[in-house]
Inverse folding.
């Protein structure tokens, strides 16, 4: 896992657990971490990155909650077979948004502008 370039920026305003979570998701999307890939233990990764064990544990819990990783008891944590479920969830949210926009009679151009504004605020 360290081979795909995990780095934690201590000066960032983004909490370390969130930096880790996003980097794992990005690695899954890029194919650097394939479905079934075993992740380091929480303790090992915390040591590699100079983080508290609880910080890595939180990132792993959130990744598991998002369906990106799965924990198999003593066997450890692995990239889930579904891989990047966040993309599936984002697509579902987009479909829900598009359906609601149609119901409201908002034009596609205006809807895209509203979504862009919401993403960049």
């Amino acid at each position: 896992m360290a081979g795909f370039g995990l780095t934690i920026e201590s000066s960032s305003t983004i909490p370390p657990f969130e930096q880790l979570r996003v980097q794992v998701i990005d690695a899954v999307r890029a194919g650097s971490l394939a479905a079934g890939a075993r992740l380091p233990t929480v303790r090992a990764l915390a040591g590699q990155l100079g983080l508290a064990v609880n910080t890595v544990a939180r990132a792993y819990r959130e990744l598991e909650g998002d369906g990106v990783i799965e924990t198999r008891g003593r066997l450890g944590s692995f990239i889930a077979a579904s891989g990047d479920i966040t993309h599936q969830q984002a697509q579902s949210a987009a479909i829900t948004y598009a359906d609601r926009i149609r119901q409201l009679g908002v034009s596609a151009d205006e809807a895209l502008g509203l979504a862009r504004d919401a993403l960049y605020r």
The first strand starts at residue 69 and ends at 71. The chain has a mean pLDDT of 88.
